[in-house]
Request: fold
Amino acid sequence: MTPPPPAGPPTLLVPDRVWDAVADAPHDGWVVLVRGERIEAVGPRGQVSAPADAVTITLPGTTLLPGLVEGHSHLLLHPYNETPWDDQVLHESEALRVARAVNHARATLMAGFTTVRDLGTEGAGYADVGLKQAINQGIIPGPRMQVVTRAIVVTGQYAPKNFAAEYMDDIPQGAEEANGPEGFTRVVRDQIKHGADWIKIYADYRWGPNGETMPGPTQEEFNAAVSVAKSSGRSVAAHATTAEGMRRAVLAGVATIEHGDNGTPEVFKLMAERGVCYVPTVSVGGRNKATVLKYALDAGVMICNGADSGPLAHGDNAKEVEGLVTNGLTPLQALRAATVNDAKMLHWEDRIGAVKPGLFADLVAVKGDPTKDIMALSSVDFVMKGGTVYKKP
Ligand SMILES: [Zn+2]
Reply:
């Protein structure tokens, strides 16, 4: 089902330096040899012996680094200042949304993001599954994908809402409704049947009597969903902005917390104890991201990169990594979030996230040195995914 690896001669990439995500500092004068879809060798130019037929690509003035990971995308959404979310869900057909998503996938790849975890189609059914297949079969350019399909909410929790009460039963929702431990069990398995790699649950949402953000699933519902997902080998991501939503999700055994705007030091400590990753999505949501990021760092929680792209324009994904630095991470911590940490989160550390022999040749070159100035990530000169060059200097 995957396209054959690129045939032809090996490629020798010659940047000014390589940041391999293994060591902290970039290696001046290193080169990378790529054969087929994999990295064959990495090291100082004199020590990597390129075969006589190797094609050399010089990348002057650049740092070569692992392909970046977008850990929280919605390829089926576009920014709400273009079209409000309700109108995207209710007025844009699935065909229209998929056509846009093809462009979004290309823009993401060209921005240097060679892998995404797509966290919900928001009303576009299982279209993420087909999109992933089209990319894997080489039909369209795009990042590697892990997908969740429709995501899960409890009845009444989500949106679109505020229609006449007598019509509410017929208003399509942005995620699939489930109720009770048995209901959650059924919906998790049904989404797996339709192609979900991950399960996403909305731990809370703005559905209190006065529009306050309140928890959605009960602890019992969460527990059932996570245990069913885990027994199939899949991880669960929880959208959560309240401390109570986060707490329920973590106690149930989710792998990641998305947003976490109102997390407390106690809840981040619980996350650290249970090995739960934090995806702060600083590009969207609350003003206190710097505060909660500090709680998370102080507690020793692994920080992962995910922009909530969709609301953030696809192709602008690097703004999140830059935003992590604005909110208190060092450039190195932010780069690790978008490479090795995300790779671990996806359980793909044996495939992506570092420049090491044997991993996929997912590589990007940026002008300058992003370990010194994170803004370098917004000038991507070169993109390779699985040994195929998508962007040339
Ligand atoms: Zn999201």
Residues 72, 74, 119, 308 surround zinc ion (CB under 6 Å). The mean pLDDT is 97. The radius of gyration is 21 Å.
